[in-house]
Design brief:
heterotrimer; A alpha/beta (about 150); B alpha/beta (about 650); C alpha/beta (about 325); A: about 150 residues; Rossmann fold; 4 strands; B: about 650 residues; alpha/beta; FAD/NAD(P)-binding domain; Alpha-Beta Plaits; 5-stranded parallel beta sheet; 34 strands; elongated
């Protein structure tokens, strides 16, 4: 629990072959890590569409993570490179929308890296806790509402 | 929330592994209230036979349309539960499995937090399953025949292991003779076994095998298609010799007036325009080289035809194009040696007594330019021989890898020279960096050389030596001394055969940093490539010894035999991606993205198309399409967005 | 009382280009005028709001509304028109997606008023007066100004929209086809955008010479590129052409003038966020695979919202920039 009682809502996209496996290993090792990060399984991190990320922010996520295979190890050869490119291009766009760039995080976790999985997830939780809630919907301001002219 | 679904949620306690932390009853109470949730059940072990039966019965009892299972990792039991659905008459993809064990119960200390997280993840699954569509397994017809490109040892081994009554092998070899580079060695290590005695029986088997169609002196011009359904266009070069009539008597060769540098002898001597590539070639038939024959330079020379008593010379022969349908392709294009002229300090030039190791193999060979006598260019015997290892190898400036076999080859040749007493009193010196001799028996050979007073001089990098002088008097400058030799042998790196470039482009393969064909995985799947149905073996994939090329050939054959069975169709990936042609504008953004070359642009229709046989369902193209025209089965946009919504 | 169908044409936060587009139908405008009775068209005709208030609900067959919504007056009128019209057509990019004025969603009322009325050097406003919704004139008369919203809204975020006529401005063919469809009662399903859904690449004159594999080694700006007229796909040169993420029907007027598409017709059907789809497509074909190489390429594109969201920021997923 943070001082303000704020518990971040973080969505993590995990790829079937590497990071999902890494999360499994973290489980087998009974590592303890925050429950604030919820997982969505995809076959490859290359499936992760920028639209998913923005919808997650719009829908209430305070942080979004993409966890894929290490470069060179992608089960589908090159999917993670595309993820890297999209992520690098999305970061400056987030800045232009005035969303702190640290709210989006890409990392590489192999199927054996249980300890790294836990560490990366905890690290994200710490960063987002410090940044505070995003509250995107609230930040859109008051919705105008006047009646029809009569 | 549409009143049409009846969703079943099954929570596994996993023998307290889950229920010890997560309050499954609270989850059940909470989630039972969701609309369309027909039943929420809890059991001790859903992976047990009883557990599986419970699910099956529940599916029937509640007429469930979708199933959610909260249990262990998908890697443990996703297939198990998909099987349960299938047996119960429900499409296996109507299920979502949520990992509440490894991802929640085992890693979250606080039970309230664990229960809350489980609730959120299961809710996400609940919103997701509304979007699940049914998918059926698909099979396509496949041709089990195989094209082997390259008639060296790897290719021959593959062909022999593949060919059978119900599987034809087309073996294409660009040279007239089979055997590849191995036909250049007189002896092999570690036992100085006669190389041709070793390999010719295998090559002969290939020629005689009725299920192997040997297309020697031929080239593959083009390949189209995909796994199970390739079509190869092969050019059979005109040989001008009728195989059925020729008895291999050599009469035509003797009278031919043309002499050109002999590729087989590594350009140390000449051959004729009509020639046997290898003495004792397999198949044992000469060919007429129309690039050098006088008839093709507007002269009416008929010497060879006149000399032939069997009417085996046919000047009217023409190149022939054939098309062969095959299901798999094996690339066995082998290696060539790196040209030491690229290394300025070594002063490698024609006509002096500095040889590459491959040239030296020919020199020592009974069928070579000197009939196997160890003599210098001037015909006299050498008194001092220096053999330099690692030329052009393990060096960023040239080739940054070790070629595995050269150290053993040089030691083999030294041993042969000493054992056969080819030059009495000869002083042999090896200049080396490290001795990498991977195969058994080589240590013994090396020790024998040391006993026989062969000198081994270690230097930091043989590529930094400088050689000068002329025949019989070559000075070799090492870091701490200068030595003299009247014959020098440079063991040069093995590099991919330049002819493989054509195939890399044709089949859209990729290369590693050293130019070798990149396999699917260098350690776990070194013979397959991302292009399904295309395999790379032998030294085309990495510098290999004869043993390893044989292993590769047999192994690739094994893989093909299990993946492509005659008469059986091949099952293709179910969860592929598809392009909606009504939405696709043919912008081609996706075409470059697929590592399996599964996406092609159809010029006539003006749209792109995904080959369902090659698609692996990664979804990378789906995320990139600017028109949203591509859909990933089971991972559609709406499906994932629903899952995200459920989580938040 | 004539038998001709009645229509209304109204403008919100717009440039007047859509009104121009209707006038630019040339002779066809006469056919239009002959076929319908225009009951409201502030730029061209003298009807008053009162006239519309006094109509029956649904008396207008259709109203064509262009411009984005950012004033309370605009909201009042479009809601009025919704009541009085059977069909509402969002006319032009601004009504469809927010349009160029939508880029103001990178600001809010406070930052805009500060800049316009206080900070600009050429202002002569020593008392820092900013507009108020109510003020007294000559001490006697109360003058009213509409509320200036923090954000620009596309029409369908304010009222229920039946059809969209896209473009900035819509091409003559797009407009004529839409009018004809109305008059012949051949409109497609409600909610349709009245132009082909397939993106511009489908009909682009530069499609045939586009290589199957294009990748981007740097982003280039058209004003510094000297081969715009070579007939080759702009993306080959790293010039951002929104064509792949933009629906067709405009006749490729810009491409034919050697200018890359800027996306004014909006995205194809089923695409939520035009800017993000284009970002994903562009990013996926960036050439280098390693971090440094990718960064070098991205350095050549300092502003992303400009090219990606020129017309569609208010209809994007995030809708606006978060103000501190």
């Amino acid at each position: 629990m943070t001082e303000t009682g704020f518990e971040p809502k973080i969505v993590a996209f995990v790829c079937n072959w590497c990071s999902y496996g890494g999360a499994d290993i973290a489980g087998s090792m009974r590592l303890n890590y925050t429950a604030n990060v919820k997982l969505i399984r995809v076959m490859c991190s290359g499936r992760v569409d920028p639209e998913f990320i923005m919808e997650a922010f719009r829908g209430g996520a305070d942080g979004v993570m993409i966890l894929g295979c290490h470069p060179g190890d992608c089960h589908y050869i090159e999917g993670n490179y595309k993820t890297l490119k999209r992520y690098n291009m999305l970061k400056p766009l987030l800045k232009q929308f005035n969303i702190e760039q640290d709210r989006l995080h890409l990392d590489w976790v192999s199927a054996s890296e249980g300890e790294k999985f836990a560490r990366v997830v905890e690290g994200m939780n710490d960063r987002i806790s410090k940044l505070g809630p995003l509250n995107w919907d609230k930040s859109l301001g008051e919705r105008p509402h006047v009646e029809a002219l009569s | 929330m549409n009143g049409k679904e009846r969703i079943g949620l099954f929570l596994c306690e996993c023998s307290k592994n889950i229920s010890g932390t997560i309050d499954v009853h609270k989850v059940k109470d909470e989630l039972s209230r969701l609309p369309d949730m027909a039943t929420v059940e809890i059991t001790n072990l859903y992976c047990s036979q009883e557990g599986k039966n419970e699910i099956a019965e529940s599916i029937k009892k509640h007429d469930l349309t979708k199933v959610i299972i909260g249990a262990c990792s998908v890697k443990q039991h996703e297939k198990t539960f998909m099987g349960v659905l299938e047996e119960a008459g429900l499409n296996p993809y109507y299920m979502q499995m949520v990992n509440i064990r490894e991802h929640i119960a085992w890693v979250t200390k606080d039970p309230d937090q664990a229960t809350a997280k489980a609730m959120a993840q299961l809710k996400a699954a609940y919103f997701r399953v509304y979007y699940h569509d049914a998918f059926e397994k698909k099979e396509i017809d496949a041709n089990a025949d195989v094209l082997v490109v390259g008639g060296g040892l790897a290719g021959c081994e593959a062909a022999l292991n593949l060919a059978s009554e119900d599987r034809k092998v087309y073996l294409v070899e660009t040279n007239p003779s089979l055997g590849g580079q191995a036909t250049k060695y007189e002896f092999s290590y570690p036992h100085l076994e006669c190389c041709s005695c070793m390999i010719v029986p295998k090559l002969q088997e290939v020629v005689e095998n009725p299920n192997i169609e040997l297309l020697n002196y031929s080239d593959v011009e083009d390949v189209v298609g995909f796994f199970g359904n390739f079509n190869a266009t092969i050019k059979k070069k005109a040989k001008y010799v009728v195989p059925d009539k020729c008895i291999g008597c050599n009469a035509c060769v003797e009278v031919c007036p043309v002499e050109v540098p002999n590729e087989h002898d590594e350009f140390l001597n000449m051959r004729k325009a009509v020639y046997f590539q290898v003495t004792g070639a397999t198949p044992f038939i000469p060919v007429l080289d129309d690039q050098n024959c006088l008839r093709f330079k507007d002269q009416d020379c008929t010497k060879c035809r006149d000399a032939c008593m069997f009417e085996a010379i046919d000047y009217a022969d023409k190149d022939e194009i054939v098309e062969v349908p095959v299901g798999a392709i094996v690339l066995a294009t082998g290696f060539e040696t790196y040209d030491p002229a690229n290394i300025p300090g070594l002063n490698y030039q024609p006509g002096i007594d500095i040889y590459t190791a491959l040239q030296f193999e020919r020199l020592l060979s009974n069928t070579g330019p000197t009939g196997g006598k160890l003599v210098k260019r001037d015909g006299s015997k050498p008194t001092s021989l220096v053999m330099v290892h690692c030329v052009g190898s393990r060096d960023k400036r040239y080739n940054n890898y070790c070629s595995n076999v050269c150290c053993s080859a040089l030691i083999k040749m030294s041993a042969h020279i000493l054992e056969e007493k080819m030059a009495e009193g000869i002083k042999i010196t090896h200049v080396y960096r490290d001795l990498t001799m991977g195969s058994t028996g080589m240590e013994e050979m090396y020790e024998k050389l040391e006993e026989g007073e062969v000198r081994f001089l270690k230097v930091p990098n043989p590529n930094d030596l400088s050689l000068h002088g002329s025949n019989s008097n070559i000075q070799i400058t090492l870091p701490h001394e200068t030595i003299q030799a009247d014959m020098v042998v440079l063991a040069t790196a093995m590099v991919p055969n330049r002819k493989s470039e054509k195939f890399i482009e044709m089949l859209m393969l990729s290369q590693d940093a050293d130019g070798f064909v990149m396999p699917t995985h260098k350690k776990m799947d070194p013979l397959a490539t991302p292009i399904e149905g295309v395999f790379v073996i032998g030294s085309a994939s990495y510098p290999e010894s004869i043993t390893d090329t044989i292993i590769d050939g047999a192994a690739a054959a094994g893989k093909i035999r299990s993946e492509l069975q005659p008469g059986k169709s091949i099952e293709i990936e179910t969860l592929i991606s598809t392009i909606d042609e009504e939405q696709c504008s043919g912008c081609k953004t996706c075409v470059v993205l697929c590592p399996y070359q599964a996406i092609g642009y159809d010029k006539e229709k003006g749209v792109s198309h995904i080959n369902e046989v090659l698609c692996r369902g990664c979804g990378t193209c789906v995320a990139a399409c600017p028109s949203n025209a591509i859909t990933a089965r089971h991972y559609e946009d709406n499906t994932i967005l629903a899952e995200i919504g459920g989580l938040l | 009382m004539s038998e001709k169908p009645k229509i209304g044409i109204y403008w919100c936060s717009s440039c007047g280009g859509c009104e121009e587009a209707i006038v630019d139908l040339n002779e066809t405008i006469l056919d239009v005028v002959a076929a319908v009775d225009i009951m409201l068209w502030p730029v061209a005709m003298d009807f008053k709001y009162e006239d519309v208030v006094n109509m029956e609900d649904g008396e207008l067959l259709a109203s064509f509304i262009n411009g984005g919504i950012r004033l309370s007056e605009q909201e009042e009128i479009v809601k009025l028109l919704r009541k009085k019209s059977q069909l509402i057509f969002a006319f032009g990019s601004c009504a469809h997606m927010g349009g160029v004025p939508g880029l103001a969603n990178l600001q809010n009322r406070e930052s805009i008023f500060n800049r316009v009325y206080k900070e600009i050097d050429s202002n002569d406003n020593p008392d820092n007066i900013i507009p108020e919704t109510k003020s007294m004139v000559d001490g006697k008369y109360e003058a009213e100004l509409p509320v200036f919203y923090d954000s620009v809204y596309p029409l369908d975020q304010i009222i229920d929209v039946d059809y969209y006529i896209p473009g900035c401005a819509p091409a003559p063919d797009t407009i004529t086809d839409a009018f004809m469809a109305i008059l012949k009662n051949e409109l497609p399903d409600k909610g349709s955008i009245l132009s082909p859904s397939k993106s511009l690449c489908d009909t682009c004159p530069r499609k045939d010479t586009k290589p199957d594999k294009v990748d981007i080694d740097a982003f280039r700006r058209p004003q510094f590129y000297d081969k715009l007229d070579d007939g080759r796909c702009f993306l080959e040169a790293g010039i951002i052409c929104m064509g792949p993420a933009t629906r067709g029907g405009c006749g490729e007027r810009c491409i034919n003038a050697n200018m890359a598409c800027r996306g004014c017709y909006g995205p194809p059907d089923g695409v939520k966020d035009q800017g993000l789809r284009m970002l994903s497509a562009l990013a996926s074909i960036i050439k280098p695979n390693e971090e440094e190489g990718i960064e070098e390429v991205l350095k050549t594109l300092p502003d992303q919202i400009g090219p990606l969201y020129m017309y569609g920021l208010p209809s994007s997923i995030l809708f606006r920039k978060k103000m501190d």
